[in-house]
Amino acid sequence: MKETIILAGSLAQKPGFGGHTWVFLQYLLGFKKLGFEVVFLDCLEPGMCLDTAGQPCTLEASANLDYFVRVMDGFNLDRSFALLYDSGKRIFGMSRADLLERTAQAALLINVMGFIRDEEILGRARKRVFLDIDPGFGQMWQESGLCNMFQGHDCYVSIGENIGQTACSIPTCDLQWISSRQPVQLDYWTTNTTAHHGFTTVASWRGPYNSIKFAGKTYGLRVHEFRKFVSLPQVTGQRFEIGLDIHAADHGDRTLLETNGWRLIEPQRVAGDPWSYRDFIRDSMAEFIVAKNIYVETQSGWFSDRSICYLASGKPVLAHDTGLKSLYPAGKGLLTFSSLDEAISGVKEISQNYNAHSLAARAIAEEYFESSKVLRALLAKVA
């Protein structure tokens, strides 16, 4: 009988966010490739259910449920999920009894950002792993007394690979953090030699969190870093396109970007589901990615799950340095920058030696991020 891995995360809350969806798919599909049975565990509250027009509705009529089911069916996970609704009073997918039995038998329950808080389910798990995919936020919130999000877990894993190191200023909260790379299931990310787009990315201008004041310093968001590089299209003469989630209130920033040559695309057009998101990346020339200020200032070692998909598709990545130079070979396929001058040099280097960087990008994905390698290493660390 195959062992089971339970992965808990927030997919149904974010219908139409194809990149966010892939975060969970990489783990689910990767563990399946290793021979595990997988169960995806999600939860949704009535006030979160919206129809396609953005109006409140029932679960059955919601875009949330429709999107969730399409993704599960589309990746052959249709018998491998449980969606808790209304604080677990209802459950869609497997029954609660089946879920509790599967959880009790599972090798691990991996709880992404501590999303699932159902005490009965967590109590049945033999080993509860907290998976931190937003390094810095949760740790600073907890140290500031704003939350206790890590409680009730046995192991603590962060994709901030420098956490606990001297150069990284993220507080550890007196926990023993395990660092882990993010996986990419390469069977779903083949290389593509064509490029209908230029330097691209998909991003949120501000994201769901506010800036954080901690230990006398303010840690900001992507917007606070991006403004430093706004002149890049004009200076380099290259095409830059972003599937950007930016609020209407940020009209000044939108104008600033467009005036400087950035082409802004509605994210729903290019990342409205996991398939369109994959197509957009595979049709791009390369990625230019600006990290959140908190990732940069803490030297967290954060590396985007999206960037890994670019690499796997044979697309070079020009990445904002978050302490990456000590973790990966930067210079071919993956280039890093901290200043505008370094970003300009990176754009020119990729443009002038594209074929070599494209080949190197895929090689980096295979060597450092291939799901079987990453997940075997993770299992060994939490054993």
Overview of this protein structure:
By secondary structure, the protein is of the alpha/beta class. The chain is built from 15 helices and 16 strands. It has an 8-stranded mixed β-sheet with strand order 4-3-2-1-5-6-7-8, sandwiched between helices. Strands 13-12-9-14-15-16 form a 6-stranded parallel β-sheet, with helices on both faces. Strands 10-11 form a two-stranded antiparallel ribbon. Helix 12 crosses helix 14.
Structure characteristics:
383 residues; single chain; alpha/beta; eight-stranded mixed sheet; six-stranded parallel sheet; Rossmann fold; 2 domains
> Could you name the CATH topology of the largest domain?
Rossmann fold
Indicate the mean pLDDT: 96
Separation of the first and last Cα atoms: 19 Å
Task: Describe the sheet with the most strands.
Answer: 8 strands, mixed
Strands side by side in the biggest sheet = 4-3-2-1-5-6-7-8
User: Structural class, please?
Assistant: alpha/beta
State the CATH architecture of the largest domain.
Answer: 3-Layer(aba) Sandwich
Shape summary: globular
CATH class membership of the largest domain? Alpha Beta
Domains (count) = 2
In which range does the helix fraction lie? 25-40%
Q: Helical region count?
A: 15
Low-confidence region ranges: none
Q: Strand content of the residues, in percent?
A: 15-25%
- Number of E strands: 16
Radius of gyration: 20 Å
Give the secondary structure arrangement, pairings included.
Layout: E1 4-8, H1 18-33, E2 37-44, H2 63-74, E3 81-85, E4 90-93, H3 96-105, E5 108-112, H4 119-124, E6 128-132, H5 137-143, E7 155-158, E8 177-179, E9 199-204, E10 212-214, E11 217-219, H6 222-226, H7 232-236, E12 240-245, H8 251-259, E13 262-265, H9 267-271, H10 274-282, E14 286-289, H11 293-297, H12 305-312, E15 317-320, E16 334-337, H13 340-352, H14 354-369, H15 371-382
Helix pairs in contact: 1-10, 12-14
